[in-house]
Design a protein that fits this description.
Distance between the termini: 28 Å
Order of helices and strands: EHHHEHEHEHEHEHEHEHHEEEEEEEE
Number of helices: 11
Strand order of the largest sheet: 7-6-5-4-3-2-1-8
Radius of gyration: 21 Å
Bound molecules: alpha-D-galactopyranose
Number of strands: 16
Helix content: 10-25%
Largest sheet: 8 strands, parallel
Shape: globular
Strand content: 15-25%
Structural class: alpha/beta
Amino acid sequence: MPAHALDNGLARTPPMGWNSWNSFHCDVSAALVEATADAMVAFGMKDAGYTYVNIDDCWMLKQRGARGELVADPAKFPQGIEAVAAYVHRKGLKLGIYESAGATTCAGYPGSIGHEQADAAQFARWGVDYLKYDNCGDYQGKTYPQRYTAMRDALAHSGRAILYSICEWGNQSPWDWAPAIGNLWRTTQDITPRWSTDQPANRYPQGILDILDQQAGLSQASHPGAWNDPDMLEVGNGYLDDDENRAHFSLWALLNAPLIAGNDLRHMSKEVREVLTNREVITVDQDWGGHQGTKVRDDGDTEVWAKPMSDGSVAVILLNRRRGPVEIATTTREIGLKAASSYTVRDLWKHTEAASQGSISASVPTHAVAMFRVWPGNGERAR
Ligand code: GLA
């Protein structure tokens, strides 16, 4: 761990939860947040590890109150944020909120720059457990690290454990400085619910592959308590089909990414629910085997990504970026497994197991992955 790592004891594994933005944008309310908390429990997501219910932009009034305080929009949150926090806490879940490290949020509501201490104290009084801190509004001459450090320190003095999510869109190589400041940091501009845009990276709009391509090379920055954030999930949204949803979820898990669902949890299909609650894939996300997943092979239209697991196994993804099925192959040596006379290969989507002498391959359909976890030896590993 770097010498100056943020030491707030939070996010020892990548945070899991839900956020309103990807499906609802400014259309947030207490009713939506509470019904989402209900759905998280009812559909098995809480049992699978999802904890945070996060309100994104547009929750407040356009003006601060008479004492300079942030005011929740009474039309959207009639009983205020505190009541929503209490509701979410009664479900055994945690509440997240959104602000910006500038004079305004991206949707034009009051930002927190210059108000860090008071706003953090207010979030703490309300019972907020998670802050996503965005990058819109005037910076008042301050640098990125200054703006994000000011809120880190305010949260540390707030008297409440509040997980700190930095959202500066990968603008100033946050992987170099944010691990000392936040529990996670966005690595890119905003995600959109499509497979790929066939445009250069770092341009709007970005699909799953565009975001993925910007994650290669960032693995040294993350560790327990501090995670690269390739943005919130689009599983179940927009133009993504079932194979694309599975691929997106698999890749984010291999990257030890925060798993923050962005779909409407109240009305999701069985297929989408099965993706979001695949425990074998979630286990890969939540396990720390020394570094997040990396790309170990790039053949253009096909790629191999691998991640060490703490029990000595390796998780591996065979990715087909293009249209049409393709046979993809790797080896236990290529993905970093120690030499052994045989291996156990478990398919994390089909939930089947096979023995191997060292080769790992699959026919992978259009825009899809095969995902395996591979143990040295023959079936004697701990599950
Ligand atoms: C930015 C962020 C998004 C979302 C919106 C809200 O674009 O990157 O994730 O929070 O602002 O306005």
